[in-house]
Amino acid sequence: MLATAVAVVSVLVGGLLAAVALTGHPFGAWRSPESLTPGLIGAAMLGTAPGLFAVNRARAWHEARSLVHPLAVVLIGLFTVSLLDAGQLYVARGGSIVPVLFSLGWLLVLGTLCVCALIALAWQYLAPGRPVGPNGAPLPGWSKPALAVLGSAWLGMGTGLLVRPAFWAGFVPWSVDRLDARALGVWALALGVGVLGALAEDDLGRTGPALIALPGTAVALTVVLVCRAPAVDWSSGPALCLVAMVAGLLLTGLSGRVLLARSSAAEPRS
Predict the structure, then answer these.
(1) pTM (2 decimals)?
(2) Judging by beta carbons within 10 Å of its beta carbon (0-12, 13-18, 19+), is residue 64 exposed, middle or buried?
(3) In whole angstroms, how far apart are CA 45 and each of 42, 234, 238?
């Protein structure tokens, strides 16, 4: 229920943020110096929505946690940074009625979903655990170093943007402010948690929803980056790193889906 609710909100809000950003006009809960940041946030929301809908097909907790943990990071992280920098929100700074109401709804919806996520996780981990069978489709050995590097890169970038946004914002290849940097850091941290979580699961069958969310997120991010390409300093090292990291998400998701399909086809049928 939580994943489905977040997926619906992600489609509606993420679609709005991404669509407005493509026109070159910044729109969101706070005033961004460049429309690319809210556009990327909206793209990430849109890209993860199919994976969140797929959580409904999970039969047990271990089949959903590779995506639910990053979901909790996003909800709790975005709500926390919004409160820490609440003075930058339109509802505090004032402005036209639409962004003010949007920022108020941003806080209310995020706060509600954040509480639901905390309750769901606490309920899950306080409930008696069920034994989990052996890994049905372990990750191939050649993929593990690449996953470790990709997950660590996203995790490290997200941590830096969250802990020291004033410093690490200078490495973002487009104009961002403090709240922009922290919001991007939350999403980067969640992507790192998702990739490293899949590595820790070491079972393709337990990462089904995440394998849907990863390529969807990569494609959505790519569309926004291409459409807003003039705003990015493509000659910089961070821009090249970002391209490689987004490509890594796409390759990870697609290769994982192929390997999972092959594993399922190879299973003996009764």
Answers:
(1) 0.92
(2) buried
(3) 5, 24, 23
